[in-house]
Amino acid sequence: MTVQTPCQSSTLDDWLCYLEGVHPSTIEMGLERVKRVAEQTQLLDTSSKIILIGGTNGKGTTARCLESLLLAQGYSVGTYASPHLIRYNERVRIDGQELDDQDHIDAFHMLEQGRGATQLTYFEYGTLGALAIFKRYAVDYVLLEVGLGGRFDATNIVTPYASVITTIDLDHKEYLGDTRELVGYDKAGIFRANTPAVVGDLNIPHTVTDYGTEIDADLVLANKDFSHMLSDNGFKWQYLDYDYEFATPAIPMQNVSTALTLLAKLNLLPTQDVISQCLSDLTVEGRFQQLSESPRVYTDVAHNPESARYLRQKIAQLRTQGFKIHALIAMLADKDKASVIKEVSDVVDIWSCASLQGPRAEQAENLQTMIRLQTKAPCAIHSSVQTALDDILAKQPNDTALVIFGSFFTVADAIQYWQK
Predict the structure, then answer these.
(1) What is the pTM of this model?
(2) Taking the chain, what is the end-to-end CA distance rounded to the nearest angstrom?
(3) Which of 79, 225, 356, 404 could be cross-linked to 143 through a Cys-Cys bond (beta carbons 3.0 to 4.6 Å apart)?
(4) C-alpha span between 318 and 232 (Å, rounded)
(5) DSSP secondary-structure letter at 332?
(6) Domain with 68 in it: what CATH number?
């Protein structure tokens, strides 16, 4: 069947449907095709300084922290993130603001005219579209979140001003490998010779430092060159002559520490007062986001073991406040579901499982089976996140906090439920 190509007067939804079906694969690793189109459309000829942000978890919060601190100093900033929660427009921000549909439509139309016979995946279209928008707006800095891995991700066609790896853990094992060393090596592919490369992971695999040393990257390493630690008033960050203390932020301190170190390395760090103000205002959607005070409800995108460990810490804090924990989990089938459940099982009193929609969705019954292998806590099943919330909220006691997690899709369903 021939798919009709949208035009500049088509809707963004028309374009997104087209992009989802124009390439036979959802993911196709490699840079040759996407770089060819970028060169044909002159997207790599830019005056913006590009910061590549890779990592298993923490890319979004690190990018949001960098964005806030750069904007506070008067720089213009373009930020590219994926996936989105509710609307595609969330993926591209200029100076912290989402753009009109037409900005994306114009970018996609330009790419469609310029790609020739080269096929692109949905993510590759999105990446090149973001680069086109950033070039059009001529921003000072571009914060480019790596999608999958690093070495062969579409974002890695650029020449970065600096590179960041937030954390390294097991995810996307079918593409990146089943050890932290293999995952780390792939992520280190975003490093460049004689270019700052900040690594925020607290237990850095040797493959990361080996590759960085091999290509003469300007490595700056957590727990060697910089550090953070809890203090009486929040947390302390230390790098070179910087020894600052801040109130505990709403995002992981590890990501804040990584962002501050990068800016210090680039001589872009604002004053301590400015940093404190930015951190006090900083929240990121879907990262232990509170949806309701009464009843107490939170949602989090945790979907791999590392992010589940961080979620466990947040849940444990709720328990110290006297709350029982009701966990509503919905996940994709290709994730390490058993490990995610194991990380939080000892701090959850009641479980509910929901099925997601789509070809990658895991069924609630399978999640229930995994939970029953690890805990004797009661566990119910539901056909969707919405039906689960209808049931749970109708009888949730005041002494119980509901935590909804497992996927970006799960969080999107929860947020949309509240918006209605």
Answers:
(1) 0.89
(2) 37
(3) 79
(4) 20
(5) B
(6) 3.40.1190.10
